Amino acid sequence: MHGVHYVLHAPQGDTYADLLFTMIERRGQRPPVTYTTFQARDLGGDTAELVKRHVQEAADRFQPDALLVGESCTAELIQDQPGALAQGMGLTMPVVTLELPAYSKKENWGAAETFYQLMRGLLKQTVPQQPDHDVKAWKHEGRRPRVNLLGPSLLGFRCRDDVLEVQRLLSLHGIDVGVVAPLGAGVEDILRLPQADLNVCLYPEVAESSCSWLERNFGIPFSKTVPIGMGATHDFLVEVHDLLGMSPPEAAEGYQRSRMPWYSESVDSTYLTGKRVFIFGDGTHAIAAARICSEELGFTVVGLGSYSREMARPVRAAAKQLGLEALICDDYLAVEAAMAEAAPELVLGTQMERHSAKRLGVPCAVISTPMHVQDVPARHSPQMGWEGANVIFDSWVHPLMMGLEEHLIGMFRHDFEFVDGHQSHLGHTGGAGAGNGNEGLHESGSLQEAPSGQLVWTVDGEAELKKIPFFVRGKVRRNAESYAREVGCKEINSETLYDAKAHYKA
Amino acid sequence: MSANLLKESGPREVFCGLTSIVWLHRRMPDAFFLVVGSRTCAHLIQSAAGVMIFAEPRFGTAILSERDLAGLADAHDELDRVARELLVRRPEIRTLFLVGSCPSEVIKLDLARAAERLNEELQGRVRVVNYSGSGIETTFTQGEDGALAALVPLLPASDARQLLLVGTLADAVEDRLIHLFSKLGIETVRSLPPRQSSELPAVGPGTTVLLTQPFLTETARLLRDRGATVLKAPFPLGTEGSRRWMEAAADNFQCPAAKVRDVLDPLEARARIAIAPHREVLEGKRIFLLPESQLELPLARFLHRECGMELVEVGVPYLNREQMGEELALLPDGTTVVEGQHVERQLDRVRAGHPDLVVCGMGLANPLEAEGITTKWSIELVFSPIHGIDQAGDLAELFSRPLHRRQLIHPALHPKPSNHPVHA
Question: Among candidates A135, A282, A97, which has minimal Cα distance to A208?
Fold first, then answer.
């Protein structure tokens, strides 16, 4: 959001969280967060005074339109009541106190609660006596229908591009987007939320509590289908049209606007049929993935689970439809055990499942947070809508062995290059052994066929060379040899290596 | 010394000591680091190191829950259970570090006693030690000080004459330094931390300690208590620092001066060649270092004296004046050295000072770049082989690289408006 500042009572070191925004999301601004960063020596003194000083400094320096005040896990133990302190300081902007129990709740709950408290704090004065919202008001007002997109945030999975994609999708159907929140919204945008005809709840983990508050207090309904996958995008369009009193969209739209259905139908995809896939992630993405896998890609879902306890019920229902028992837990070891048990050929999960999949030697694609920097790519990479389905097709099929290679490895298992488990389309030779092999070939070639014919690597020189990371070792070897020739020395030892390194400045 | 030493307090933008796990787990692959803390601690480690994909976890967090906060007895039982489960899963672990965090320190969970209890139970199969990496007590590299200090009581006793290098070094750097010391005539050179946690070096009155890193205050004190002599020297960054650091040992071992010159002179000459191209980029440039690791003083000394940079401000999270005496003496007169931080005011000074290069943490690096200020993110210095005379060129390169990069790509990415049409 913008114009909203957060004072977080937290020990020194908790500022690591800034890196999630500056490195993983690669933002060019500091997060609007002031940390009190207390240290052990402050605990003997007046930490409450410390909070007040930071609140005042933040208010003066950043002059936000609204101030959030909360505690980290350690501050929760010392109970300074920073929210109440800030409320009593006579600040001119609205102050929202956050009660986020760090020892029983987690990130998504915190995001949902914060968004809800901020919105409620800013809107509660304008709540009407009786909700009198008319979802079809746009018709007699002679304008296009207008919806809010609620839920997208930083550090959400592909939110940046999902918003663009959903905006485009709705625009094609003559529907305008009013407010997108929290991503990019300011206080003035939150105040405009009640002006929309309908709320679109894109990420229930973050926005469901806010959507239902707006429904209860203002009478604004909200959509419940998340448009990830071909079928879900179609259902989403049907739901939104229906809620807004519009005639239903063309059933064939998806086939025309996305390449995914044809790619999945084409014969190259036949070998995907029945591939065993294990799915784990947040509730929203796991449920969407299960539907795509079973109905659109022809995989067999052999495991489905989520760490979102709030979404346990819908995840269980989705699993039941596939004849599975859903795994609801946040213990990665239990997830790994379930994965090993299910023996999948593909894992669709979070960054954590990549670890387990590596351990088990199973191809893996990331479908949900937690994620790392590679899942905030520069290119347009939505998961939602028609283009999202294209992205999903490419990224889920990519880690699987290509069809021809799979056949050949199944037939001929004694190859020196295409060994078991090797995936040549991923471009690496598979294990350090292969690298050393190439190194060996190069070595004999350069030693025996060198024009001088006289260069000798000493044991000490060879040992020094081995310490160079293998991907630059070849270059270092060449440099050392040409340096030796240049200065006319016959023997290459560790000193020569360093001489050459200094000489070539690399 | 004539540096201008100032202190500042306020909001700080630094890592806590838990971060030390990110490199210590690689130095000692047979050790496991179990943080006792909250989800925040788990999240920190996972965010920092989780970009690598681990087939075998090397670290983890025993997350305190509401139940643990209610009564201490429960928490100890829980911890024992978690440790036991972990050791079943990873039977090859030889040393288990129980790492204290802010929550465990605030509720006064006695991890030292827990380590003792587990040691008894495991009877030598696995050694369990404890140190604190909490943010309230430690800043970034101070975590390594805690971990090494926790190992000192376990070191075997020996009166043998030896040189002990203390502080994490890259493997290749370690080998190189040991080789060079042997050329000087110092035969026995050991390292703390070792490459395997089970192969701890001995210590005693015959031990001479060279600190490779400036953040080892507590470890140095404990080694002194065990009879070792801790040498005073600048830190082995750059040609000059490394040379004087090695000479300090040579002196202590009474190596003949001529031999020392024979070994070190050629290295120094070569290092000068290696630094030269980087000096061309760095000379006359103004640098501002924000507090992070305590490496800032030796780095500033190297960058000023060997690369010709001007020092705008040198921030340090913590200043051990005795240990840093040699470094402070080598800084130019009037250098502003600021201990502690008020990050907002420090950023005001950065912007007002228009430095050519800012050494800062990753929470600030991209935002400063977006303001047009070139940065060198400081954490990399703890992950790079930068020690010793032979590495001086590489160390200089770490600082010339961002400036070189900007020169390289800036004109193309920010083209000046031109009247010439592209298809002329």
Answer: A282
Q: Tell me how many helices (H) and strands (E) chain B has.
A: 16, 14
**Angle CA B411–B412–B416, to nearest 5:** 60
Does residue A275 surpass a pLDDT of 50? Answer: yes
Q: SS3 for A363?
A: coil
Taking a C-beta distance cutoff of 8 angstroms, is the pair B338, B346 a contact?
yes
Q: Which of A18, A40, A104 sits opposite B137 (nearest CB)?
A: A40
Do the Cβ atoms of A30 and B171 come within 8 Å?
no
Directed axis angle between helix A159-172 and helix A230-243, to 10°?
A: 60
In three-state form (DSSP H/G/I as H, E/B as E, the rest C), the secondary structure along A260-277 is HHHHHHCHHHHHHCCCEE
pLDDT of residue B78: 86
Nearest residue in chain B measured CA to CA from A498? B390
CA torsion sign for B243, B244, B246, B252 is positive
CB–CB contact A102 B139 (8 Å) = no
The widest CA-to-CA distance across chain B, in whole angstroms, is 83
Both tokens of residue A331? 């213990």
CA-nearest residue to A40 within chain B is B136
Provide the residue type at A103 as one letter.
Y
Return d(Cα A121, Cα A209) in angstroms, integer.
14
Instruction: Say whether residue B134 is in contact with chain A using an 8 A CB cutoff.
Output: yes
| pLDDT over threshold 70, residue A350 | yes
Nearest CA-CA distance, residue A487 and chain B, Å = 15
d(CA B57, CA A62): 42
Once rounded to an integer, what is the mean pLDDT over residues A140-154?
97
Tell me the pairing of strands B4-8 and A491-492. Answer: unpaired
Report the residue from B11, B64, B139 with minimal CB separation from A35. B11
Question: Which residues of chain A does B135 touch, with a Cβ-Cβ cutoff of 8 Å?
Answer: 11-14, 37, 39, 74
Cβ(B41)–Cβ(B74) below 8 Å:
no
Q: How sure is the predictor about A426, in pLDDT bands with cuts at 50, 70 and 90?
A: low
The enclosing H or E element of B377 equals strand B375-377
Interface touch B390/A39, C-beta < 8 Å: no
Segment 388-417 of chain B within 8 Å of chain A by CB? 390, 393
CA B89 to chain CA mean position, Å = 30
Lowest mean pLDDT among A273-287, A447-461, B204-218, B262-276: A447-461
CB–CB contact A501 B366 (8 Å): no
ipTM of predicted assembly, 2 dp: 0.91
DSSP string covering A349-360: E-HHHHHHHHHH
Averaged confidence pLDDT in chain B: 93
Task: Tell whether pTM > 0.80.
Answer: yes
The token duo for A349 is 């999960």
CB contact under 8 A, B39 and A106: yes
pLDDT per residue over B229-248, tens digit each? 999 999 999 999 999 999 99
Per the CB < 8 Å rule, is A359 touching B134?
A: no
> Helical H runs in A90-136?
107-123
- CB-CB under 8 Å, A505 with B393: yes
pLDDT reading at A450 higher than 70: no
Quick one: which of A71, A83, A82 has its CA closest to A8?
A: A71
Task: Give chain A positions within 8 Å (CB) of B46.
Answer: 370
* Dist. CA B63–CA A95, nearest whole Å: 31
Q: Quick one: closest CA in A to B371, which residue? A: A28
Whole-number pLDDT of residue B125: 87
CB-based contact, B385 to chain A, within 8 Å: no
Expressed in angstroms, the distance from the first to the final Cα of chain A is: 45
- Token duo for residue B311: 């020092």
State chain A's mean pLDDT as an integer.
89
Residues of B in contact with A354 (CB under 8 A): 53
| A103 pLDDT more than 80 | yes
Answer yes or no: are the C-beta atoms of B138 and B17 closer than 8 Å. yes
